[in-house]
Write a structure and sequence with these properties.
By secondary structure, the protein is mainly alpha-helical. The chain is built from four helices and two strands, in the order αβααβα. It has a single domain, classed as Dna Ligase, domain 1 (2-Layer Sandwich), CATH 3.30.1490.
């Protein structure tokens, strides 16, 4: 009987821990840091590491957790697809939307026109 109670307690603790971990993951990956929309230009230098990109995003208050960013980019294999350049991001974008924008979005480009002559 004591073994059964011990097993139930261990399973309850594991279930609670798993639930908390999934809540943390969902909050950090799928919830925007702000409900207000503020455009922020974010620069990725050529050769920047995913860790540096995550740290820069955190410093600019675009993501909540560098750990979640690192885990998400590893799980989705997004890091090799990041483009160098300047990107216009919003504070109401979730971490997953930001990662998608950095790998599929077009960098903020400027058009220059040279007159003839």
């Amino acid at each position: 009987m004591k073994k059964l109670i011990a097993i139930i307690v261990v399973l309850a603790i594991l279930g609670f821990g798993t639930s908390r971990a999934l809540d943390w993951w969902n909050f950090n990956v799928n919830t925007p840091i702000s409900t207000d929309s503020h455009r922020i230009t974010f620069h990725i230098d050529p050769g920047a590491s995913p860790t540096q990109i995550g740290s820069d995003l955190y410093d600019m208050h675009l993501i909540r957790s560098t750990i979640a960013f690192d885990m998400y980019t590893r799980l989705t294999d997004a890091a090799p697809k990041f483009q160098a350049g300047a990107f216009v991001l919003n504070t109401n974008m979730s971490l997953s939307q930001i990662v998608t924008a950095l790998q599929h979005g077009r960098p903020d480009e400027k058009t220059i026109t040279f007159p003839e002559g």
